[in-house]
Amino acid sequence: MAMKAWFDTKTAPCAFMPGDMVLQCALNPGKLQNKWEGPFVVSRASVRGAYHLTNLEDTPLPHPWNAEALKNYYV
C-alpha cells in the first residue's frame, strides 16, 4: 500500500483538450521500429479519459484511445 501511494505522488495526471496534437503508442512495435505514431489531433474528450483522434487530414480514427496510450506532441 505504501508503494502505491509513493508511486501515485510521482505520476502527473495528463489531460488533453480538443485541438491538442498528440502521439499515440504503436500497437505492435518491432524491436527497431518507432514506439510512437502520429501526430494526431484530439477531436473529442470523454469524461472517463477516452479521447477520439483524427489525423491531420481530418479523417477520424476508428476507436477512442485511453490517455495512458497518448503523449503530447510539441511542434
Please describe the topology of this protein.
Blueprint: H1 2-10, E1 21-25, E2 36-45, E3 50-54, E4 65-66, E5 70-72
Antiparallel strand pairs: 1-2, 1-5, 2-3, 3-4
Any overview of this molecule?
The structure is a single chain. The protein is about 10% helix and about 35% strand. A hairpin with a 4-residue loop joins strand 2 (about 35-45) and strand 3. The chain has one helix spanning about 1-10, and strands at about 20-25, 35-45, 50-55, 65, 70. The longest helix is centred in the first third of the chain and has 9 residues, at about 1-10. The chain has a domain at about 15-25 and about 35-75: SH3 type barrels (Roll), CATH 2.30.30. A 5-stranded antiparallel sheet has the order 4-3-2-1-5, with no helix packed on it. It has about 80 residues and is mostly beta strands.
Kindly list the characteristics that best describe this protein.
75 residues, mainly beta, SH3 type barrels, five-stranded antiparallel sheet, 1 helix, 5 strands
> What's the CATH class of the domain at 17-27 and 36-75, please?
Mainly Beta
Listing every helix as H and every strand as E from the N terminus to the C terminus, the arrangement reads HEEEEE
Order of strands, widest sheet: 4-3-2-1-5
Class from secondary-structure proportions = mainly beta
Question: What value does the Rg take, in angstroms?
Answer: 14 Å
CATH topology of the domain at 17-27 and 36-75: SH3 type barrels
Whole-number average pLDDT?
88
Net shape = globular
Question: N- to C-terminal separation?
Answer: 40 Å
> Which CATH architecture of the domain at 17-27 and 36-75 is right?
Roll
Low-confidence stretches: none
The percent of residues in helical segments reads 10-25%
Q: What percent of residues are in strands?
A: 25-35%
